[in-house]
Write a structure and sequence with these properties.
The protein has 202 residues and is of the alpha+beta class. The chain has a single domain (32-199), classed as OB fold (Dihydrolipoamide Acetyltransferase, E2P), CATH 2.40.50.120. Helices cover 27% and strands 33% of the residues. The chain is globular and about 40 Å long. It comes from Tumebacillus lipolyticus.
């Protein structure tokens, strides 16, 4: 009887340990807070405008390599902090680049001191995604930037239209969400994505 009880106890502990490990593995940003800043940037009415404003349009994957980039302000301000992420090109739809080439891409977001800091509700790339990216080259920093912030990045693996969450944090933690925006901005995002899927037959 004692042996059976001990075996049952060990089994419960093992299951509990596996559950805790799984939760930790799936939710590494459980304590994260969201800080969103606004910005002045061009709003594109349709996907043709977005393509016209882009030097390079590719399908690619985030390699997992990401570093902080900080540009000081010449007038004593806080400067600008971005993430410099590495993308592996799968297919080129416009512009000059090679398949399987890796390129650096600035993302309007970063994590610091348990805060996910972003511009205009941008949600950064992850290793599970397959992205359609609209890019232009920043000659001063030798890095591509995403055109129109959130308007220039679409995860092709995510096919559902997700309704807005109660909070930005819940949206950030939801793996099905690719943009943290709300209301008309969310509608605008999905409109452009639908047009992109049709234009490039994806």
């Amino acid at each position: 009887m004692k042996k059976r009880a001990l075996t049952a106890t060990v089994a419960v502990l093992l299951i509990g340990g596996i559950t805790i490990f799984t939760l930790m593995k799936e939710d590494p940003y459980a304590n994260i807070e969201i800080a969103t800043s606004s910005a002045m940037f061009e709003k594109f009415h349709n996907i043709d405008e977005l393509e016209k404003g882009s030097e390079l349009v590719v399908i690619g994957n985030f390699t997992g390599e990401r570093e902080l980039f900080h540009r000081p302000d010449n007038y004593g301000g806080p400067g600008i902090t971005l993430s410099k992420s590495t993308v592996n090109i799968e297919k080129v739809l416009k512009g000059e680049a090679k398949e399987k080439e890796t390129i650096p891409v600035f993302e309007e977001s970063y994590i610091k001191n348990d805060y996910y800091v972003n511009t205009a509700d941008y949600k950064w790339m992850n290793k599970d995604g397959r992205y359609l990216l609209f890019l232009e080259w920043n000659t001063r920093k030798d890095t591509y930037i995403i055109v129109g912030i959130y308007q220039g990045k679409y995860d092709l693996k995510l096919t559902k239209k997700i309704k807005q969450h109660e909070s930005s944090k819940k949206a950030f933690l939801d793996s099905e969400v690719e943009f943290l925006g709300r209301d008309h901005e969310l509608e605008h995002f999905y409109k452009l994505k639908e047009e992109a899927l049709k234009k490039y037959k994806l």
